[in-house]
Amino acid sequence: MAEPIWxxxxxxxxxxxxxxxxxxxxxxxxxxxxxxxxxxRARNRYAYEGADMHQLAAAYGYGMVKNHAFVDGNKRTxxxxxxxxxxxxxxxxxxxxxxxxxxxxxxxxxxx
Length: 112
Hints:
Elements: H1 9-23, H2 32-49, H3 53-67, H4 74-88, H5 106-109
Helix pairs in contact: 1-4, 2-3, 3-4
């Protein structure tokens, strides 16, 4: 697998700001370290586990939802980050499920 196009902290911030602007909620980053840690999860899985693209997208989503780096909109932002990651890497979602992401283990993220 070729090196993926990675999502940066700046990209996540833009996605978050768009979600808050569009759907409402409190704006602001609660903890920059939690944001960095949440998105680093995907690179770590790629480097140490050889994760595929869907697993990498899941790692982004799981890390962001669990870390709660933003004041509000963490789950919305996490979903959009997963979507953008797949899209910029040439993959599309063929369906979207309504799920409770807070109760979902990381492994399950890569199968929905």
